[in-house]
Amino acid sequence: MQLHDTLKRMANPLYPVNSLEGRLLFAVPKKGRLNSATLNLLEGADIQFRRENRLDIALVKNLPIALIFLPAADIPTFVGEGQVDLGITGYDQVQEHDAGVRSVMKKRRFSGEITPEEESARSAITGCDTVMELGFGACRLQVQVPEKGTYQSPKDLIGKTIGTSFVHLTEKYFANLEIEAGSQGGLEGKIQTKIIELSGSVEAACALGVADGIVDLVESGETMKAAGLKAIDTVVDSSAILIKSRSPRNTELVELIASRIRGVIAAQRYVLCQYNIQRSALASATKIAPGKRAPTITTLDEEGWVAVSIMVEKKKIAPVMDELTKVGATDILVLAIANTRTD
Ligand SMILES: Nc1ncnc2c1ncn2[C@@H]1O[C@H](COP(=O)(O)OP(=O)(O)OP(=O)(O)O)[C@@H](O)[C@H]1O
Ligand SMILES: O=P(O)(O)OC[C@H]1O[C@H](OP(=O)(O)OP(=O)(O)O)[C@H](O)[C@@H]1O
Q1: For residue 11, what pLDDT is reported?
Q2: Interface ipTM > 0.90
Q3: 20 to 30 A Cα–Cα from 54, which one of 69, 116, 194, 199?
């Protein structure tokens, strides 16, 4: 059943379900690490909405879109099944969802419930496509063990107990490890390593004797350090991504949103740098900072001088200004870009 129909059946009269008709459904993280950066991105893309208290659906005022607020972990399911057209979540969550779907299909094939052909046909229609990386929410899903313990390499954990919120990726990781080590048993892909599902505070599992190792997200590394753990391998490198279903309701609108978001990301990543320089030094200056496509050069009302305008990556602007000064650039101005539409 389509999400539109399901929502219509819900009794709560506050749900703006009747107005969902004809709208593109866009899932965004309702809380957690990706929530605030996602809301900033929507604001930058001029996607205007007002979310009523405790409602997980908000109609966009200026575009035929409805925002659906969901846990980041559930967004790949809704988009992958085509119930929702677009979504923002972590790449780790998409990988976890895909690994889960593949594992269920594999089990159904081994039990004779579906044929290999049905398995690949279903895999082709479900799942989501990545539209773009969004430049926030960077983290790594890592295998962690007690710093002072005896486990040094991931292979030492074969047959042991692992705590994680990412059970499917962890199962796949240890299944591959066991195959590599020649110790995996059974055609059904049963693994010797025991995976325990935990929904939060995974880092506490080793100290409490629940697990020998964990597979959990790391950003700064502070949480793992405080818990006396060290990383011995990375399962997935992740950051926030925009995903779309394989059959979105309105591809033009998907393109419009993608293009707006691309513009916001470019605006966040670049600054506009303007300076004056003598024409004779222009070649050296543009070599230092050639701009995104090419510099915009304007003749100044002073013999032999030009004004140059270029986009520069924010993180490189300080050394670029140092170098430009060395070759004779003056009156250097750096301006924030509010928004942009660029390739
Ligand atoms: N420490 C982190 N640094 C950066 N990104 C992270 C971090 N932890 C998680 N993420 C990213 O955010 C996504 C959502 O994780 P988060 O723990 O915020 O979800 P949640 O379960 O919805 O929220 P909560 O933990 O508050 O219940 C993760 O899948 C990952 O992509
Ligand atoms: O490397 P760090 O910067 O310290 O971040 C890593 C921590 O962040 C995440 O947990 P979160 O704080 O979202 O809470 P949770 O344990 O309830 O999932 C993750 O599960 C780690 O515990």
Answers
A1: 45
A2: yes
A3: 199
